[in-house]
Design brief:
mainly beta, 1 helix, 111 residues
Length: 111
């Protein structure tokens, strides 16, 4: 079975970004950085290593503000751990509501 942490596993190409993000698991507010984005999801690196272990299927909410645009996303954890691509801890997230991702994807073309 392919490794979802491997860049070659992706169904759609990812655009590298470095956007600040606020996120929550519903219990506590946290900060982090979105490191890449695609039409189906993104990679989120938390600002610190969470004490909570997030498993595939867990849901989190993310707010990303870029310039004058703020986007709220609901995401599903697909994997958590060390990203070989980014050389850091984080989460591979699926964002089911792709209209929200399209707003952010448009920003990758502007930056």
């Amino acid at each position: 079975m392919p490794n979802p942490k491997d860049a070659n596993y992706r169904n759609s190409p990812r655009a590298p970004v470095r956007w600040a993000a606020f996120w929550t698991d519903g219990l506590r507010a946290r900060t982090g950085e979105i490191r890449d984005i695609s039409s189906g999801g993104l990679f989120l690196s938390p600002a610190w290593r969470p004490s909570t272990v997030y498993a595939a299927g867990d849901e989190i909410e993310i707010r990303c503000a870029i310039d004058d645009v703020s986007v709220d996303l609901k995401a599903i954890v697909r994997w958590s751990g060390t990203s070989e691509v980014h050389d850091c801890e984080g989460f591979g997230l699926e964002v089911p509501k792709t209209e929200d991702l399209e707003i952010l994807l448009a920003r990758t073309e502007q930056h």
